[in-house]
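Priority: low. Protein: Protein kinase domain-containing protein. Input follows.
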Amino acid sequence: MNSHKNVLKLLGCCLETEIPMLVFEFAVGGCLSDHIYENPILSWESRLRIATEIADAVAYLHYGTSKPIIHRDIKSTNIFLDQHYVAKLFKFRLSISIPLGQTHVDGNLSSWYIGSIAPESNGTWRFTEKSDVYSFGLVLSFILADDNEEDIRVYLRANIVKGNTQQLMACAQLAIRCVKVNPEERPSMIEAANELRRISRLRIATEIADAVAYLHNGTSKPIIHRDIKSTNIFLDDHYVAKLFDFELSILIPLGQTQVEADVAGTHAFIAPEILHTSRYTEKSDVYSFGMVLFEILTRKRASDLLKKFYNVQALDKIEKNKRLYLEATL
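Result:
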């Protein structure tokens, strides 16, 4: 458990003091609840990443050890952030393991406990992985927007303007699933983590699409990138997508709908019409973006898609044309 990057690491203990102490890594960013209420408000990108990291940590507790560990106290004040805003799950004093061969564990909570208990555990003190899923759902709803009604309005309005509506709705739907009264209707933490990753990938795809749309429509002359591919897209420390490498970019002249240029780019991302006509339009970039989108959603290489819909000879022909072109220009 101590090895997971999203769990606050136990460094050691002090037994020589009057009161024995545990020593944990220092989370300089403080707890998550402080940042939710702070101004400037945490960006949507940061919130989505933090939610995914928490889901990963809880999924690791449930499935990454010999016995499933139930945290039993997942809440925003028990989640800390390091200097890079990486989420760290903390406070395992209430955690218990499900015995081998069992699907649940019985364990009372102290009378002083202040937290959100899943409905099926309240009074019965019977805990399963779905008990943690319920608590995570409450944290996720807190991450989406805090309890302040005016802050919620401002936050939602800002993200609607930014085009994050679909991602917000997808996260809200996941949070609702996590807090279902019937535990059988809740997703597992692995399913929740995978869903958050899917939402994150869609966010990145949206940012790339916005960047390409700006090249095509945001300048006096449309700019054709000509080399849109996953290796030309970078992520900053908040996982915001950045389109890069404009070495092959060209402008479409005023009054024209296309521009002729030598075939260039990466074969799996080159639109088919380019190989025959050498004429570039905005739709050439759209094809390349589509291949990137395929990679984002399936986590497979664009060349795999070509192999599926075309045959190996088609790829060989592309490579041959590319090689002949390079030889002719030497």
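Residues 10-187 form a domain with the Transferase(Phosphotransferase); domain 1 fold (CATH 1.10.510.10). The CA atoms of residues 261 and 278 lie 6 Å apart.
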